[in-house]
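Could you please consider the sequence and fold following this short note?
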Amino acid sequence: MMISRTVLHAVISAATVCTIGALPATVAAEQFPDQPVRMVIPYPPGGALSVTGAVIATAAEAHLGQPMVSLIRAGGGGAVGATFVAKSRADGYTLLLGDPSINVIRPVLEDLPYTADEFVPIARFTHSPFVFVANKDAPFKSMKELVAYAKDNPGKVVYSSDNINGWTYTAFEILKREADINMRGVEFDGGGPAVTNVLGGNTLAYAGVPSVVQDYIASGTLTALCVSDTERYANLPDVPTCVEQGVDIKWGAWIGLFAPAKTPEDRVQRLRTAFNALAEDDGFKALMKRINADLNYLDQPAFSEMLSADSKAVKN
């Protein structure tokens, strides 16, 4: 995601001054946490996780009873940050803001310095479809036109991708398979640099969650091609689904919080309680809406079930 500094500063300021929720009386008596909690962002600044993470970190203090610090640990398409958390002390003070790429797809398909089993899920915050977009000067203005152009010009459509086996990478792999077209992807280390290159004209297309691309679509700097869902996205009602454009793509992405696998159960439960309360907080909901993030919260049991199903789907 790329978001203007003005908007990001406004969000953080709003989170600081608004009443996110009264601090429960029981928090003061809790032994954990009694110091700041670190949330590791495994991608460069400007991406979906960094902006969503900034809101979560700022708003969570009222429910944790301690500051939450957002820490960028980028590199290796997210693997550096994920490994850092997996190998950290399992005391609940170092958490990972993860996604399908680093917590499901890549651990199944690649030999990484960590495994998916080295994490325990805490909660899922968002779930969104993808919006395929193009540079405003691209020679296509719809998904049908992109497919036709790619068939007439094999290999000439160059698109931005996050990293091999990442969520944007996978979205385009599905597109190429379903439409039987030949396009070239350029892998960047996160959504921030990926969308920047589309805006700058270095690449022609990208697929991002609404929080990444919606403001650019509204400003006319990116052209929306289609939405990868079974129905049109409520905030972009004029953008057709990919199925409406003749390509069967139903693919989305989520953002969730994880702790090292051996974190004591009582601390996991304390974190769950805090983030459950955060998800119900009207101030937090307003802030997530402000950055176009689709709040779709799952507590640990449902999140764990979803992760298991996703992992089985990738393996098959």
